[in-house]
Sequence to fold (301 residues):
Amino acid sequence: MAKPQQYFVGVDIGSSKVGVLVGQRGDDGGMEVVGRGLAPNRGTRRGNIVNVEATVEALKQATEEAEVMAGVEISRAYVGVAGADVRSVNSRGMVSVARKDREITRQDIRRVLEAAQSAALPSDREILHSIPQEFLVDEQGGIADPMGMLGSRLEVAVHLVTGNVTRSKTLLTCVNRAGIEVVELVFEPLATARAILTEDERELGVLLIDIGAGTAEYALVLDGEVYHSGVLPVGAGHFTNDLAMVLRTPFGEAEKIKTRHGCCLEGLVIDDTGISVPTVAGGSSRIVPKRELAGILQPRA
Fold:
């Protein structure tokens, strides 16, 4: 077995599947994926865990698959959070620089960040991330790092991502029962933005949307920092469910039809040939025009 400290593990417990990735740090500082595990999951709904046993079993299966591929035993991991209960808010904090020389130190930066995080939150919520957007020194804004600057007043604008305490503990329990220690809970859109956005996109501004089976997570990035983020309780599975109900076809068949022939805008359907749609309980199939499929999917979109 390779040394575990050379590896970084990410866990994504989604509404339809559990994914585990094992990355290895290369000599150039980059990350190479050396192990991957996927397992279907019926223990979550809209990003929240509703069946602990099913979630733990899916996590174990995905972990074992990733371990075999990577040749390393997984004991610690970063775990993604993307439940519909996640909320974000922007907050500000301000402190005075009392020293005679007025030079801002790391202690001052820590104090102003703590002040920004002291926003009143309900007792059932906790801060998952505190992301500085900009610092202000004597009302001069746009400062990324005020260390060493001179001033009498230090302010900061931060983006706070909060989660439900009970649901976070349930997530931690599931991962721990699968034999894995949680290094950190990470709000998934923030990790996705860090992984795929270019520096130009982050500076010019971009809205990132990650559509899962039960939820859609999003993050608005501008001037290199996150200014808004959240979770919508609607995902790809809702489109599949609409097709299954309207066409009276099994969910698995509806998923295949959506993937192969689905379109969310009727105006884009040029080829209006019919497709064979199986019915529930083993009934005879019927032919449905592709435009009719779009007519079912477009209202949901």
The CA atoms of residues 276 and 287 lie 5 Å apart. Helices lie at 52-70, 106-116, 165-177, 188-196, 199-204, 236-247, 251-261, 290-300. DSSP finds eight helices and 16 strands in the chain.
